[in-house]
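Hi R.,

Here's the chain you asked about this morning:
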Amino acid sequence: MPSRIQFESAGHVMSTEPSADETLANTGTGGAAGGKENIGTATSMTFDSGVAYFKCTDTLTSAVTWPGNPPIVPGSGVVNDGTESCATPYISVTGISIPSSWTVPATGKTESLSGIGAAPNNTGTGTYTIFPDVQIIIASGASTGGPGVAGSTKQTVAQIIGPVMELDNWVVPWTPTDKPPNFDGSDFGLARSSGYGNTAKGGPGIFYVTVELTYGLIFDTGGTSTTNKTTLNFKVGVINNYSNDRETYMAAYEKAYASPVSYTHLTLPTNREV
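And here is the predicted structure, written out as tokens:
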């Protein structure tokens, strides 16, 4: 039997996990505060929110699980036959963003940051990219009960997971072909992703990608609910991998200026925090 939007207020209760905005902990490799950048083509450093960390659940109440209660939805002519089913929950990626700018302490320049693609605004299950190599996997979850059974539930779940790419490879203008800051050696360890993560030298620290998820219900009859709808924001942390900084800087210089150069004299700042 179908789920009917006419019985939404009387017989359907939506719940979400998490229930509030959150900075996500990492269960993958690289640290609990976020995923650490991989070195080169490696994929061992990952961000993982945990399996089915995000959940949207519809629960059927006793109000629509026996005939005649409510008897007729006013103005609709729809009679409750006691066979109402759960609506289909959805989790939609409705926004993805990164810090819009930061001022590089080493140069005094304010950089406008970009590099994130558009949100998919999906209403179905599937796999969608959050930022390079890190994806959200949205799938059907467990169902309990059945038509006309009080307490029946239907669930959609999601997980954010994937290897973390070097920030300098995709954040504009940290990519070497798009307006690199100085790039003369004096800003080594102080600009681009290494500078952003260098809190001891004025960097913000962890680089956060914010994911906006909208939870809602879709009814077999009546379509998408405008009442049961919740939007929450989740921060995914990316931690700079200092072990990769020297090689990344040298490769970026050579790519930007087509001028191979020896940077054997470069040493990383010793006083760094994340």
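One quick note: The first helix runs from residue 8 to 11.

Cheers,
M.
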